[in-house]
Amino acid sequence: MHDPIAFFLTIATYGTWLPGDKRGWVEYQLGWKLPCRPLELEARARMTEQACILSLTQRKSVESQIAETCEYRKWTLHAKNCRSNHLHVVVGAFKTAPKKVRQDLKAWCTRRLSQGTDDRRENWWAERGSIRWVFTEEELERVIEYVNDAQDSKHLEK
């Protein structure tokens, strides 16, 4: 297997896609799981603040920070799209572990959001997030198209 040419990251905002969710959910290192209402209620009860829904201004701030971080780290930013309840990024970050890429992007976006609002929010993002490896130019084209265009056309935005 050859090295990936990019990573396709998806990061939910805090509290917007909980374990047990009615849409299904991903259990860390165990994969996709069916909805489980009692588990969702338990997860919701453990939340320390309300779910995070990003405003248009906050979304623009996140996208700006993604671009700035990628430029600073010398990563190739192929696509970014911050939605009200999640973020997609397609990035070429050679010789950098994908978890490090995700961690850095979340950390810098958190700093930007915390500085740019009067909110006292502590939790902006879900604990982890999805990392998909992209190996071919064809796959790269598909994920870029999805991030840039397909979400709006499929009405996936809440």
Automatic annotation (TrEMBL):
Gene3D superfamilies: Transposase IS200-like (3.30.70.1290). Residues 58-147 form the Transposase IS200-like domain. Pfam families: Y1_Tnp. GO terms for biological process: DNA transposition. SUPFAM superfamilies: Transposase IS200-like (SSF143422). One of its GO terms (molecular function) is transposase activity. This is Transposase IS200 like protein. It comes from Crateriforma conspicua.
